[in-house]
Amino acid sequence: MIVIEGATKRYGEATVVDDVSMAVESGSMTVVVGQSGSGKSTLLRMINRLVEPSSGRVTIDGVDVSTVPGPQLRRGIGYVIQGHGLFPHRTVAQNIATVPRLLGWPRDKTRARVEELLALLQLDPKQFASKYPHELSGGEQQRVGVARALAAGPKILLMDEPFGALDPIIRLKAQDDLKALQRRLGATVLLVTHDMDEAFRLGDRIAVLNEGRLQQCGTPAELLLRPATPYVQQLVGSSDRSYRLLALTTAAEAVEAGPAEGLPGIDGGATLREALAEIVWRDAPALAVLAEDGKPLGRLSLQAILARGRPQ
Amino acid sequence: MTGALALRLAALALLLAFLFDPAAFAPVFAPLAQHGAPAIYSQASLLDLTVSHLRIVALATAASAVLAITLGILVTRRAGAEFLPLSRAIVNIGQTFPPVAVLAVAAPLVGFGEAPTFIALFVYGLLPIFENTLSGLQQVSPAVMEAARGAGMGPWRRLWEVELPLASPQIFEGVRLSTVIAIGTATIGSTVAAKGLGEVIIAGLLSDNTAFVAQGGLVVGVMAVLIYDAMGAAERLLLRRLGVLAD
Ligand SMILES: Nc1ncnc2c1ncn2[C@@H]1O[C@H](COP(=O)(O)OP(=O)(O)O)[C@@H](O)[C@H]1O
Ligand SMILES: [Mg+2]
Questions:
Q1: What residues of B are in contact with residue A48 (Cβ under 8 Å)?
Q2: What pLDDT does residue B193 have?
């Protein structure tokens, strides 16, 4: 668990991060969201000591990070930045091997690990290992950046606008892939973005930062249903907050008992937002919710969906 | 084999032939020598003069490189940033001050011969290497540096494994430029009695013997071109090994 207590950073007169306290549960994904210049990167970089707080402290599993030498600390924490920052003079394999090499891993172990990571990120080792970063597409570079951060098997991954340089279609896929990867590895991820949709797509919890001050840190539903400040309310948007809320629940979670014969089917993993769209499109009173093997789990009525789109 | 390479090899062969057996080329230069004056300079071996000439160029440029690259590294560190304007000023003065003037000032202080020539070439060679080192180090992408730091590389590693390799094309370019400038400039060393090819040219000027001037000038010129190209080729080889240059 990462615990941030009263973290403050001043540059001269300006207080860039102002008395922020929050915790990131192990194995969860927390997204820090805020406008450009709100202090997100500074907050993130205090965790791996790329920035030293002016006051306050950060602990990881109870250990104050200021007691660990910077380079040693950073070798144990994955760090992914916007525009990937791959070493242009190193091959993909060498880039990924950066931290294992710093840690003095034996050659065989490093090579095996590089292949494993390439495969994990859907990059064919044979094809990509010996390429240089400039020979890759934006999406591939981004994935190599993630592979490099994961190379030494860190429990924590810090990501600073990791999808900022990707175009929208690739970005959605990259977000889904990251979420799946995080679940699979059980990693603790702290991700920074200025994109509220990204925050809602990815975050188990969302921390809203404005002018260096933490406005609220809570689950997406909490932000929607009980925004702590007018700023949060404005940020989560009032026009589409029902849709956001619906997008947080899956059809399988909202399934009702009852006959489902003859109803249009929907995958249990689909969100209620998608289910609503399906009902509107098909002009059906309800949907049949299907398990992964295609067997019906039950039904999902329009009323049940609508009830989930407002405070209960 | 490309035409350009063939031309260079031919030039090299001709140059070596001339240096090892200048007398054989007497008929070529004879038309330039008037009233039965000797066509080939024979006060000293041309080969010896060439070797001395190149030796002082190599020594002076190596010294310039060591100082200029070190300075360039220092002023791009956070702690050294305040020395940037001062270093730049010093290096610039070194370039503005004509080498002849440096010789005139240095000779009375350190005596005649190679020492003042070395000083003049050394001072004159600093600027191209310094400026190239500086711009090479400054153009390394901030995202790359941030990633290096974020991965847990210390300052030395970042310098050695990231900054210098990525800056090396420019640094090499600076060294190459300084070398070629020094090959030409070293001829003035002969005015303070340093052994070098300038001796041939000056002897030609003093005795009004165009043949001497031509052979001294040609050897220097052809050498400058060949060395410039050879360094370029060596550079590409090295950069490829550093991964900085794509195949
Ligand atoms: N090293 C620094 N020196 C001075 N000001 C800085 C420094 N780093 C960041 N800032 C300022 O702090 C504010 C927050 O920066 P940052 O944390 O990068 O914001 P964000 O990532 O949310 O865009 C900005 O106004 C930025 O100009
Ligand atoms: Mg930022």
A1: 150
A2: 85
Predicted model pTM: 0.88
Alpha-carbon distance B46 to B114, whole Å?
Answer: 17
What whole-number distance in Å separates Cα of residue A84 and Cα of residue A87?
9
CA of residue A157 relative to chain centroid, distance: 10
pLDDT in tens, A5-45: 999 999 999 999 999 999 999 999 999 999 999 999 999 99
- List helix spans (H) across chain B: 3-20, 26-29, 46-75, 84-96, 99-110, 114-138, 142-150, 155-157, 164-185, 198-206, 210-242
Name the CATH topology of B51-242.
MetI-like fold (1.10.3720)
- Of all protein residues, whose CA lies closest to atom 27 belonging to ligand 1? A37
Residue A200 near residue A232, CB atoms below 8 Å: no
Q: What is the pLDDT of residues A164-223, one digit of tens each?
A: 889 988 999 999 999 999 999 999 999 999 999 999 999 999 999 999 999 999 999 999
pLDDT score at A115: 96
CATH architecture of A244-308: Roll (3.10)
Distance of CA B34 to the CA centre of its chain: 34
Residue B69 buriedness (CB in 10 A; 0-12 / 13-18 / 19+): buried
Structural contact between residues A15 and A8, judged by C-beta atoms closer than 8 angstroms = yes
Provide mean pLDDT across the span A62-66.
96
pLDDT at position B204 is 92
Q: What is the CATH number of domain A2-237?
A: 3.40.50.300
Q: What's the CA gap between A114 and A152, in Å, rounded? A: 10
**Dihedral (Cα; A216, A221, A222, A225), 10-degree rounding:** 110
Tallying the residues shown for chain B, one arrives at 247
Confidence check: pLDDT of B247 > 80: no
| CA A31 – CA A135 distance, rounded (Å) | 31
Q: What would the mean pLDDT of A133-157 be, rounded to a whole number?
A: 95
Tell me the nearest-neighbour CA distance from A198 into chain B, angstroms: 22
Q: Which ligand is nearest to the CA of A15?
A: 1
> What residue segments make up the domains of chain A, in order of their start?
2-237, 244-308
| Cβ within 8 Å, pair B146-A50 | yes
- What is the ipTM score, two decimals? 0.88
CA distance A53 to A44: 11
Which residues, in sequence order, are CB contacts of A60 under 8 Å at separation 6+?
A1, A2, A3, A47, A156
Nearest CB neighbour to A89, from listed B146, B157, B166 = B166
d(CA A163, CA A99): 22
- For residue A20, give the ligand nearest its CA: 1
Cβ neighbours around A274 below 10 Å, total: 16
Which residues of chain A does B147 touch, with a Cβ-Cβ cutoff of 8 Å?
A: 79, 81, 84-87, 145, 148
pLDDT score of B35 more than 80: no
Shortest CA distance from A46: residue in chain B: B150
**Most distant CA pair in chain A: distance in Å?**
68
